[in-house]
Design a protein that fits this description.
This protein is an alpha/beta fold. It has 14 helices and 13 strands. It has 2 domains: 196 residues, 3-Layer(aba) Sandwich (Rossmann fold), CATH 3.40.50.2000; 181 residues, 3-Layer(aba) Sandwich (Rossmann fold), CATH 3.40.50.2000. The relative contact order is 0.12.
Length: 388
């Protein structure tokens, strides 16, 4: 790779929705030195963050109508050829994939095209314990195959690395831990808390519990509604805010209606102003069944919120049980209720958890600068090895 031209990097991600993988990718591209790197993002045609991506100076956004999250063999093959042709036609030096579907298709296309540097970031593995046996082993096979020709595999939690090595996905020397980077200033105390609470119809006496998540089975948002019902029976002055949208929206609305919780639960839809919403919460909850390291938890802790989360993936690496929040088993509504009730009734405990949560997240490990420098260093190392 000659020093006289820019390094062409193709990022591939399934969809630019409001998720941790997408937010981190855009933060990374925004921070790249455009005098040194020429970045492209290849993704699905639609998504809430498409407009934001189009506004990043120096970024070229390529939308592919064949990329879709569900397995669709014909579209997947067409997407594979689309990516392959783009790599060949645009002299791509580095392919960096994000998310499971894009990680498989993108790496296969990169290998077929002869790309020398292929990097994948794991935002939670495509295989997990809630899959049927054949599906689980199919994804495991694909991850093993693609790991074999990946130059490097970035993980955002130690848990994902351990899980991969236990299942013989990739060699240990290929893995690099690079935590999500958070813009901590964005989540400092907001001067608009009263306005935000007023916009949501909240009174000064209301205690507010929130969750930010895509409405999909992984995040188990119906458990959040069940938790709201359990708390409402004992603490009727508690309100619940659920931020997001997705395929489970109808079921969520039906359950809210069935449990007569319309006055207790606020559905905001997708929001680009998570910091303002977090500023009016007292406790943050996440009910996921499986995870990598959810950025919503990191943002909540940066905002000084105690967190109650299911003990999945790398969450225990940041939520310190009994110190910055509580960890419970997935789908354990009773444990969620008990822990949440304790925090809601003890302001001093919430304050203690809040102080330590902010301290944990303000370490350099979770800074945007660290995320950017570590990733660029990986690019430099991989490029110098491959093209020396």
């Amino acid at each position: 790779m000659g020093s006289c031209r820019k390094i062409n990097i193709l990022y591939i991600i399934t969809k630019l929705e409001l998720g941790g993988a997408q937010k981190q990718l855009l933060s990374l591209v925004r921070g790249l030195d455009k005098k040194r790197f020429n970045p492209y993002i290849l993704t699905a045609c639609d998504g809430p963050l498409v407009a934001e991506a189009e506004g990043i100076p120096g970024l070229k956004l390529i939308r592919c109508r064949f990329i879709d999250r569900p397995i669709r063999p014909v579209k997947d093959i067409l997407a594979l050829f689309f990516i392959y042709r783009f790599i060949k036609n645009n002299n791509i030096d580095i392919v960096h994939t994000h998310s499971s579907k894009a990680g498989i298709l993108g790496r296969l296309a990169a290998k077929a095209s002869g790309t020398r540097t292929i990097i994948h970031t794991v935002h939670g593995w495509s295989f997990h314990d809630y899959q049927a046996g054949m599906v689980y082993y199919f994804y495991l096979f694909l991850e093993r195959l693609c790991a074999g020709f990946s130059s490097a595999i970035i993980v955002v939690s130690q848990c994902d690395k351990i899980r991969a090595l236990q299942r013989r996905v990739g060699r240990q020397d290929k893995f690099k831990l690079i935590r999500y980077g958070i813009n901590h200033e964005e989540f400092k105390d907001s001067a608009e808390v009263s306005r935000v609470r007023k916009d949501f119809g909240l009174s000064g006496e209301d205690l507010v519990v929130g969750m930010v998540a895509c409405f999909k089975p992984q995040k188990s948002p119906l458990d959040f509604i069940k938790l709201a019902d359990a708390i409402n029976k004992e603490l009727p002055n508690v309100k619940f805010i659920l931020v997001g949208d997705g395929i489970l929206r109808r079921k969520i609305c039906a359950l809210i209606d069935k449990l007569d919780l319309e006055k207790q639960i606020i559905l905001t839809g997708w929001s680009n102003d998570i910091a303002s919403i977090l500023s009016c919460l007292d406790v943050f909850v996440l009910t996921s069944l499986w995870e990598g390291l959810p950025i919503s938890v990191l943002e909540a802790m940066s905002a000084g919120l105690p967190v109650i989360a299911t003990n999945t993936g790398g969450i225990s690496e940041v939520v310190l049980d009994g110190k910055t929040g509580y960890l419970v088993r997935p789908r354990d509504i009773e444990a969620l209720r008990d822990r949440l009730k304790e925090l809601l009734m003890k302001p001093s405990l919430r304050e203690a958890f809040s102080r330590l949560a902010v301290a944990v997240l303000e370490s350099n490990e979770y800074s945007l600068d660290n995320m950017l420098k570590s990733t660029v260093q990986l690019y430099s190392d991989a490029a110098s090895e491959m093209y020396s």
